[in-house]
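[User] Once you have settled down, look closely at the record that follows, and write a paragraph about the fold.
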Amino acid sequence: MPPKSPVWDLFHSNQTKYKTNSTHLNAWCKACVAAEICQTDAMSECDPPLTDQEKFDKALCRVEPICGKRQRLEAHVEKCKVLTPQERASALLCIGKENVPPPPPSIPGPSHFPLSHCPPLTPTTTSTPLTGGRPLKRARTSLDELPVQLTQAEFDVDACKLFVACGIAWNTANNPEMQKFTNKWCHSNVKMSDRRVLSGRVLDGEVKKIEKTVKDAVAGLLVTGQCDGWKNVAKDHVVSTVMTAGNEPYLVRTHDMTGEPKTGDRLLELVLSDIDYMVEKYGVTVIAWCTDDGPDGKKMRRLLQQQYPWIMVFVLPRGHQMFNNHGTALALLKNEMKFTYEGKIWSLVLPVITRWTAHYLSSTRLLKVKGAVTSCVHWHEEKLKVAGGKTQEVQKKAEEIIQIVKDSSFWNGLAKIQAILEPLAIAANITQASHTRLDHVLLTLGNLFRIYSSSSTQTLDAEIAYC
């Protein structure tokens, strides 16, 4: 059995277990008990007066016990309000705390409670005082040695990195539960800053640090540039540029290309702008450029080599065939939604066979934006025909889709499907809820039978006609 920790010399124990803990004992701080006894003496009017043992037992009842775990006991010593700085420093040295500067000289002031229960102590320093009664993992970093402004700045940077790395929305910083969490578990010198601070000043500062780090790493080197287009989660078409130096890739810039033509001339403008940016910002020399083998990439490479003959051009290897991205058609539809729905834009939902209610949600969303879709086809039919590509096969497919949108029977059939699926979608949400009971399931099945029975077909047809 390991020897008992020296920290127990500063605590009382009656060999009872701490709450439901079957391993650790109850512990009472000797300084806190002594203070409680002094307070009892000052307020006591008992006749005859209480004995020392009665005073001690009464103090134990009033002082909150501590779990007899070494870390908990040391944490209490670090934050005990009864101890003076000199007494706390001596206590920490007594229990083995080292490598800390000596405490400041004592300042004359009111006398503290006698600590005759404690052994002689010699000076050292305090660790980070904690709040909330539970030691933090960073308790040994001594945040009190830093100015409050510096501590808050460091916390803001770490919080910003955490939000970005975990994909947490910036609005979470202003959530009341987040504020309560940080107030309870974090150091008293720090608090969760406003979302505008984290996503503004703090994020901009981190971007500048990264840019400086990249500049220090690549300045004066020969680099290879690379660009490629893709769609982000919002289905916006973007083109990203990356430079490679010393076998390490570095992101340069990302351009939003939604609604812009995907031509070689436009891509060349972006590449030339990025080359100038890389040279001026990072002090590098571009010796080669890579793109995919799409039509815009082919023309861009040809024009780039004509303008800069010393730059080598390459084709990125592809393990799969890229599908055409109709960014122009999507941009036209978004603009039509803004005009039709007073600035609001809704994404179209793709039905997935493995997702419950997906087909209902898909048909409901398409019916919701019916006005914008039909209006977009009416005003931009010629642009939509060539938005997917210039080949005859692609344009023929576009004409077929345009005719479907123009066909009123398509929208009537879609409304019928949506009306048929809606009771099933509602039933699915009821029966999969966390608080669903058996009577809910029974009533839901009975309601489905009522809706889809032959006696209710007229009502269903009437709802479809109304849609």
Observations:
- The longest helix spans residues 195-218.
- The two ends are 79 Å apart (CA to CA).
- Strands lie at 11-12, 26-29, 66-67, 222-231, 237-245, 248-256, 285-291, 312-315.
- The first strand starts at residue 11 and ends at 12.
